[in-house]
């Protein structure tokens, strides 16, 4: 479950920046949101590969 925890922690760490960007139109917060979302995308891809490998190994 550490991968799930990583995703949850990343999303929770971005909450403040999301609010600053969407509610206060803080452009620097938008940059941090974009960077965090890229990290989320990369982490999700790693998890997809890991799950696929584990699925294939069990056959």
Keywords:
59 residues, mainly alpha, 2 helices, 92% helix
Description:
The chain is 92% helix and 0% strand. It has 59 residues and is an all-alpha fold. The protein has one domain. Helix 1 (2-24) runs antiparallel to helix 2. The chain is elongated and about 50 Å long. The mean pLDDT is 94.
Coarse shape: elongated
Strand content: under 5%
Indicate the mean pLDDT.
Answer: 94
- Rounded to the nearest angstrom, the radius of gyration is 15 Å
Summarize this structure briefly.
The protein is mostly helical and 59 residues long.
Topology:
Elements: H1 2-24, H2 27-57
